[in-house]
Amino acid sequence: MRDALRGERRIDADTLLTRLGAVRRFLDTTDGYLPDERLVAAHTLVERAGSRLAMSRDHTVVALAGSTGSGKSSLFNALARLDLSPVGVRRPTTGVAHACVWGPLAGATKLLDWIGVLPRHRFVRESALDADDESALHGLILLDLPDFDSVERSHRLEVDRLLGLVDLVVWVVDPQKYADRVVHESYLRQFHRHRDVTVVVLNQADRLSPTELPRVLADLRRLLDGDRLDGVPLLATAAVDRAAIGELRATLERTVAGRQAALRRLSGDVDTVVAGLAELVASEPGAGEVDRDSRRALAAALGDVAGVPAVAGATEEAYRHRAAGATGWPVVRGWRRLRPDPLRRLHLAGTTPAEETSESLVAATSVPDPTAAQRSAVGLAVRAVAERASAGLPPPWPAAVTTAARSRAADLPDALDRAVAGTDLGLRRRPVWWRLVGGLQWLVTLTALAGLLWLVAGYALRALGLPPPDNPTVGVVPLPTVLLLGGLLAGLLVAMLVKPVIRWAAGRAGRRARRRLDAAVTAVGEEYVVTPVQEVLRGYAQARTALAEAGAPG
């Protein structure tokens, strides 16, 4: 990984932008599904990366980070070859970040403003006396950070903030505290995905004897390997000796010349964020849709709550009621109209356009209220939809699926009522055969009435002493009697023949109404339960794809 600082492994800017775009799509896709606290790092990355890439890419921001007494401020001054950062015996000395800019300050102003270095703590490394010596570092912004183990909490918070913004970090340790647990566990170990932009310096190496220095460096290398920082550059420096910082200075020159540190840092940030988000998606894509059995169970439970069986039964009864009224003996039709229509009792659709319009104004049906068991069955069906659809998804996606399945539960009763009320039950048009049979009944009734009137007229003439009419006969039976009795018997016979037909047709009408009601209720379940669940499942699939695209290239 040391070669990475020499520019042998380059980060393509377009590839980095593609990965950042994938992280942004992941955030957009998971918005509202995942807890905000799980996405803070990703949001911070997208914001920081966008800001850093919009800044000058000709500048490389390098931070000297170290604990109290490590000598990083002295090293800062030695690299700048000027006394810029305060050095003292009292600890902590550095309370705010100081910056030294190699080259014109104007081009680095916006970047320093974004980093948050105050103008009075900015210095420009430009000198007519040694301009050629410093030209190799033009574009470098070197920061001297506060001590990360400072007793001042504000200092530690400032260090943590700045470490998230710089392009390359030079960790400065000293022979006395190079194995400090805080240094390794709280900081170095957290930078294992930023090996390309990490340098470790053992400062104050002049305090060690020639035999001690190799042993200390070997022990420090062992600790770094344990921190998963194997391969990062490990240098020995001494701020009091200009020659002892030559290797560090050469490393910084190569970094500045490569113009890759900012891209490598952001690439490492993407790696870190993707690794943190990886536990939110599984290696398998998941179900992707609600299975058929869950849909059927949900539709059945919703149908019971909506009163579909009752409405289908009422439709069958209404068919028999209306068919009997249309095909029965006209003399008793009025009596049948006195009986209430089963569908109208439920405030459902009538048989004429006027009745249909009138019924459509009713806000709700009069379908019997569901029982507690039926309502419980709906809850269980909704839960089953969520559980089976989210099977295999990692947390917290199952919770998001369950929330989506229940998101419109409060609207279900009204939606089901509207669906039932708006379903065409198939009784809005009278069948043609009703009219034919009804016409036939009128014909035989009029025939019987004609025979009755004929007989009454004959009796009236005899009562008045007038000669009775000479009635024609059918065999030995007078024609008026034949008409009366034949009409009555024909009407009874038609009614008896039509009755089983009506019963069969009513059952067929009830089954047809049941199918239409089931379809309407199923559509409500799809819209109010299944669709929200599928939106979450699609979001999971899109998030999984986006995270795969955001993964490390190659």
UniProtKB/TrEMBL annotation:
Residues 62-203 form the G domain. Keywords: Membrane, Transmembrane, Transmembrane helix. Gene3D superfamilies: P-loop containing nucleotide triphosphate hydrolases (3.40.50.300). It holds the Pfam family MMR_HSR1. InterPro entries: GTP-bd (IPR006073), GTPase_Era-like (IPR005662), P-loop_NTPase (IPR027417). The chain crosses the membrane at residues 436-461, 481-506. It comes from the Bacteria. The keyword Ion transport does not apply. This is ABC transporter.
